[in-house]
């Protein structure tokens, strides 16, 4: 059951860093490796492609039966094309994992659900903070994935960015300031998506404290510019054309639902179109599951 948000921000802050990393390591039951290859002509509802490098030129990757697209380090997306003739609206999916873990397999079931509904999905990797600071590298990576989605020959040019947990934080930064990122990206899109879907996200890094040190490479006293640039709340006035859906479970024991309430208020005050919905009985992990949020997302996208 879903109920409309009622306002207010709770003071509780759960142990996010450890919890998100553990959830990423116990990703949903999807068998097989991260690579997904196109089917061999048999009837399917989608064509799934994890773009591998070609032997002849490792800088070029190919989508079978479609076109060639440049390879970009750290992105290596899984692209799912819906059945039928395009172009299609695109959705870029950004996985969670506490900024230090995770991969696109976490979001693959939701990506497949969205492709069955007629959306081209770009399920992207990004630079993790386990060995180097994630900022701005992760933002550059995801902004580049948005540009890929905007300019892909099977895309109609419209892009939704969808993130879960830590991925929702990264998606929010890109949704508001993506035109400022994408260093080294070979695609010519703007980097700004048309819509944002945030699933159980922490949108105010000031409330996260030491949890964000690996992402920013230091605390707010050491890296004040990075902490400012990487906080979605500081940028709500920079892309007021953004249309946003925020979903959060009221049984989330990892990321306080107050983050979503706070972000909703900030976006609304800035003049953006935003809808916040609370999913009753849903915990943190459930907010990325297609059978929990899939219909809500598609209904909103098609409204």
How are the secondary structure elements laid out?
Blueprint: E1 2-4, H1 16-25, E2 46-50, E3 60-63, E4 67-70, E5 78-82, E6 88-94, H2 108-116, E7 120-124, H3 137-151, E8 155-164, H4 166-177, E9 195-199, H5 213-216, H6 224-229, E10 243-249, H7 258-270, E11 273-279, H8 290-301
Parallel strand pairs: 6-7, 6-8, 8-9, 9-10, 10-11
Antiparallel strand pairs: 1-11, 2-5, 3-4, 5-7
Helix pairs in contact: 3-4
Characterise this structure.
- This protein is an alpha/beta fold.
- It has 8 helices and 11 strands.
- It has helices at 16-25, 108-116, 137-151, 166-177, 213-216, 224-229, 258-270, 290-301, and strands spanning 2-4, 46-50, 60-63, 67-70, 78-82, 88-94, 120-124, 155-164, 195-199, 243-249, 273-279.
- The strands form 2 sheets. It has a 9-stranded mixed sheet, with helices on both faces. Strands 3-4 form a two-stranded antiparallel ribbon.
- β8, α4 (166-177) and β9 (195-199) form a beta-alpha-beta unit.
- α3 crosses α4.
Strand content: 15-25%
Shape: globular
Measure the end-to-end span.
19 Å
**SSE series:** EHEEEEEHEHEHEHHEHEH
Helix proportion range? 25-40%
Please report the total strand number as a whole number.
Answer: 11
Biggest sheet record = 9 strands, mixed
Instruction: List low-confidence stretches.
Output: 1-18, 21-68
Structural class: alpha/beta
Radius of gyration: 18 Å
Task: Please state the average pLDDT score.
Answer: 82
Secondary structure tally, helices = 8
Strand order in space, largest sheet:
1-11-10-9-8-6-7-5-2
């Amino acid at each position: 059951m879903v109920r409309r948000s009622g306002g207010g921000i709770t003071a509780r802050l759960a142990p996010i860093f450890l919890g998100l990393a553990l959830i990423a390591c116990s990703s949903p039951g999807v068998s097989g490796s991260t690579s997904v290859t196109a089917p061999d002509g048999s009837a399917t509802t989608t064509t799934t492609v994890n773009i591998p490098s070609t032997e002849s030129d490792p800088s070029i990757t190919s989508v079978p039966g479609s076109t060639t697209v440049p390879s970009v380090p750290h992105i290596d997306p899984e692209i799912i094309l819906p059945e039928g003739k395009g172009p299609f609206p695109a959705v870029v999916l950004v996985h969670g994992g506490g900024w230090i873990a995770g991969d696109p397999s976490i979001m693959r079931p939701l990506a497949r659900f969205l492709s069955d509904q007629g959306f081209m999905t770009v399920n992207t990797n990004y630079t993790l903070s386990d060995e180097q600071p994630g900022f701005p590298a992760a933002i550059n990576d995801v902004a580049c994935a948005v540009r890929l989605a905007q300019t892909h020959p099977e895309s109609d040019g419209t892009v939704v960015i969808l993130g879960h947990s830590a991925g929702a934080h990264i998606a929010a930064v890109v949704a508001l300031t993506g035109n400022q990122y994408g260093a080294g990206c070979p695609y010519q899109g703007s980097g700004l998506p048309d819509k944002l879907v945030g699933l159980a996200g922490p949108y105010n890094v000031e409330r996260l404290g030491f949890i964000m040190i690996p992402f920013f490479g230091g605390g707010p006293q050491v890296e004040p510019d990075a902490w400012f640039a990487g906080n979605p709340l500081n940028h709500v006035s920079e892309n007021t054309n953004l249309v946003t859906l925020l979903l959060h479970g009221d049984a989330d024991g990892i990321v306080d639902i107050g983050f979503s309430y706070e972000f909703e208020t900030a976006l609304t005050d800035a003049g953006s179109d935003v809808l916040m919905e609370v999913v009753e009985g849903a915990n943190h992990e459930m907010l990325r599951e297609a059978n929990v949020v899939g219909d809500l997302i598609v209904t909103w996208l098609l409204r």
